Amino acid sequence: MTPADGLPALIPQSLLEAVRNLDTPLDDGLNELADEMVSKRLGLSQTVALQIERYQHSAGRKQQVPEDEVILIFRLVGRRPDAALVYADAGRRAARHAVRGASLGTKTALKTLPGAMGRRLGVGTASRLARTQLGIPMERHSVRTGETVTSRITESLATRSGYPGTGCAFYGAALAELLRLTSGFEGAMVHEHCRAKGDPYCSWRAVDSGGYE
């Protein structure tokens, strides 16, 4: 699933950006508590700010980060009580970063091609970005009712970090956001199989907003 020399820098970048986002206090008028809250929130620390800057620089250069380093960050998120929210936020951020990094020609085609042709290109683009920028396999399948998109992973960052199930929120959110941004998909990636439930792999299937049971 992942390159031997590491993982795209936009993955740890997105994870730490999500931590910072969730740790940012709401503007609720409790300004007198702001300093104390900031001092206790990892996402607002100088260390996290410097790491995000470092990963942004590496991502801009399409550089890889050692897999063990990314796993440590993924594990750090998994220990939080709001881990599922952070993972989902990070997944959406990673997808947006991946799409922003697509070539100008691809982005122009996605905006100009009409109807079914544009959607087909969009799904293909999402599949390519998922594989090359996020290390996630995504496949298109023809079925009686049309086409569907699936993803199957045996070993993910969620399983490697010790947080299958909760960590899977990163993948479902990232795949759904990729499809939304590239093909106009409105729906969710349903998590049909999960290692946390004893299944031999994790899998997701795209279900549009009209197909929920």
Order of helices and strands: EHHHEHHHHEEHHEE
Strand order of the largest sheet: 3-4-6-5
DSSP helical segment count: 9
Mean pLDDT: 85
Q: How far is it from the N-terminal to the C-terminal residue, by CA?
A: 31 Å
- What structural class should be given to the helix and strand makeup? alpha+beta
Count the E strands: 6
Shape: globular
Q: Strand fraction band? A: 5-15%
Quick recap:
The protein is α+β, with helices and mostly antiparallel strands and 213 residues long.
Structure description:
The protein has 213 residues and is of the alpha+beta class. 54% of the residues lie in helices and 15% in strands. The protein contains nine helices and six strands, in the order βαααβααααββααββ. The strands form two sheets. A four-stranded antiparallel sheet has the order 3-4-6-5, with helices on one face. Strands 1-2 form a two-stranded antiparallel ribbon. Helix 6 runs antiparallel to helix 7. The longest helix is centred in the middle third of the chain and has 20 residues. The protein is globular. It starts with 6 loop residues before the first strand and ends in a 5-residue tail after the last strand.
